[in-house]
Design goal:
Layout lengths: L2 H14 L17 E4 L5 H10 L6 E14 L4 E7 L8 E4 L3 E8 L8 E3 L23 E7 L4 E6 L12 E6 L9 E10 L7 H11 L13 E2 L4 E2 L7 E4 L9 E3 L5 E8 L6 E4 L5 E6 L2 E8 L2 E3 L4 E7 L5 E7 L4 E8 L8 H9 L24 E11 L3 E4 L10 E3 L4 E8 L5 E5 L4 E5 L2 E6 L1 E4 L4 E7 L5 E6 L2 H5 L3 E10 L12
Parallel strand pairs: 2-5, 4-9, 10-15, 14-22, 23-26, 25-33
Antiparallel strand pairs: 1-33, 2-3, 5-7, 6-8, 8-9, 10-13, 11-12, 15-20, 16-19, 16-21, 17-18, 17-20, 21-22, 23-24, 26-31, 27-30, 27-32, 28-29, 28-31, 32-33
């Protein structure tokens, strides 16, 4: 590593040695126990990464460039920001336990970072500026290097401003060498909502929201989107396009296959403000994984994907062409990938969308985790309530009545069982994402799926448990990019006790 990458790493170490120092919980003004935050540059983070590295570990090296330029959405070229000029960006595929080394070059006009969404990786590689690393300046670079801990379907994107709502995203697939398989082929599909390069960009949209709030937004004569499935408001932004693997429904990508083949679908929602109802009309799917972790196989006609969520499912390919449909829930938008087993005609996408919309959609929150990944039963050592509020005047979204402050967090200690209780007091759904951990959802029937992003519907509360086994400072936020940037973020803050020096005065016995 040399040049800008080396400089970025040195600057990172200099800065992260003190990152999180302001996150002090229970700090006593006088004598007595004190705690301090376990920062991204702490010895505990480095020691855990050393323990993850194994003899003979395979290294995977990737070069990644964040660039500006045009992409084709299918007959319409737009100017945007992407990884390597591709939409989605180039897939990274590794195996569980590999050492992933990614050299990022930032050729954007703004600073950026990369967040490895869903991975319980080392804290200093998590890509949150001001919390786990400095921003990567325009024209500079940075080297990400970490052991990949868990198999599954993941993805990566920036964590600076609204950059996620441009074209800066790509799949990260972690294969399990011990997985039994049971399918013939894979198809990775990334769903997205799109406005960049169409007259407005995400920065402008956020600025308008902050300036005038929801009541003053121009919705083009349309009412605010609503969804019964989502329990209320379906989003804040009316997008002109919806994409599947970078294309609109009218110029859909085709996946060539054969009748009877069992296809593993890896479904990712990279949208900024849109949930997608996903399915193949007339062809049931079997849900096998949520956010990378196996669940009890569950049949569904369609599945709801909140922003940041991933679902793996199996379908048996029929002998005619069928569309894998993504309905922009509550927004009257459609996208698709065509599954083509031969030379037959493509079905009418509008008719297929109407058929899918009429069928029930499964919310994955209640699907039980597979026994192999179910957390051992244990009462929590600490419980943190997270009350989701907003929008306040000026388009402010809050957690526990406060907007994001990286120097203020929810304290946890190593080895604790932690329970987070998300209570949604707003009229909109919030996909809540916890960095650096996979949690177990708690349901009325017992334990739910293992996940890192969970949809919390209006007026409802969701409880999740995780074991505090990955030290550092971990962002926790709504994965609606506009809600997060308007304040709905906080920090799960590992803290540790520090020794208080004893002052001995002359002549006074100890």
């Amino acid at each position: 590593m040399s040049g800008p990458l080396l400089l970025g790493r040195r600057r990172f170490l200099a800065v992260t040695g003190g990152l999180g120092v302001g996150l002090v919980a229970g700090c006593a003004a006088g004598p007595g126990p004190r705690t301090t935050a376990v920062g991204a540059g702490s010895a505990a983070v480095a020691e855990l990464e050393r323990a993850r590295r194994a003899a003979g570990q395979q290294a995977v090296d990737v070069r990644l460039a964040a660039v500006t330029g045009q992409v084709d959405l299918g007959g319409r070229a737009v100017s945007t920001w992407t990884y390597g000029g591709e939409l989605p960006g180039p897939e990274i595929r590794v195996r569980r336990g590999d050492l992933l080394r990614v050299e990022l070059r930032n050729d954007l006009p703004q600073p950026t970072t990369v967040h490895w969404h869903g991975l319980a990786l080392r804290n200093d590689m998590d890509g949150v500026p001001g919390l786990t690393q400095p921003e990567i300046a325009a024209g500079a670079g940075f080297g990400y290097e970490f052991t990949v801990p868990d198999a599954g379907t993941y993805w990566f994107h920036p964590h600076v401003g609204t950059q996620l709502d441009r074209g800066l995203y790509a799949p990260l697939i972690v294969e399990d060498p011990d997985e039994p398989g049971g399918y013939d082929e894979e198809l990775v599909v990334v769903f997205d909502d799109w406005l960049d390069g169409t007259g407005r960009d995400p920065d402008r949209v956020l600025a308008d929201l902050l300036a005038v709030g929801m009541g003053g937004m121009d919705m083009g004569g349309m009412a605010m989107p609503r969804s019964e499935l989502l329990g209320g408001d379906a989003g804040d932004v009316m997008y002109p396009f919806f994409l599947a693997n970078g294309r609109t429904a009218e110029a859909a990508r085709s996946h060539r296959t054969r009748p009877g083949r069992r296809i593993r679908l890896r479904l990712i929602n990279a949208g900024g403000d849109t949930a997608f109802r996903v399915g193949v009309p007339g062809t049931p799917m079997t849900i096998t994984h949520t956010d990378g972790f196996p669940v009890v196989p569950t049949q569904a006609e369609a599945v709801l994907l909140g922003m940041g969520e991933r679902v793996d499912s199996m379908i048996d390919m029929p002998d005619v062409a069928v569309p894998l449909i993504g309905l922009a829930e509550g927004k009257d938008g459609i996208t698709q990938v065509l599954l083509q087993p031969g030379q037959g005609p493509a079905p009418d996408v509008t008719t297929a969308a109407v058929a899918l919309a009429a069928r029930p959609a499964t919310l994955v929150n209640d699907i039980p985790a597979a026994e192999s990944v179910t957390l051992p039963g244990r009462e929590p050592d600490v419980v943190h309530d997270m009350v989701l509020g907003g929008p306040e005047p000026g388009y402010t979204w809050t957690i526990n009545g406060e907007t994001y402050d990286p120097g203020r967090g929810l304290p946890v200690r190593a080895a604790q069982r932690v329970r987070l209780r998300f209570e949604n007091t707003t009229t909109m759904f919030h996909p809540m994402h916890v960095h650096g951990h996979t949690f177990q959802m708690r349901t009325a029937a017992g334990v739910g799926p293992r996940k890192d992003t969970a949809v919390v519907l209006p007026g409802q509360a969701v409880e999740v448990d995780f074991d505090a086994d990955n030290p550092g400072q971990w962002l926790t936020h709504c994965h609606n990019v506009y809600h997060g940037e308007a304040g709905m973020m906080t920090v799960v803050s590992y803290v540790e006790q520090v020794a208080v020096p004893t002052t001995v005065r002359p002549g006074v016995p100890r």
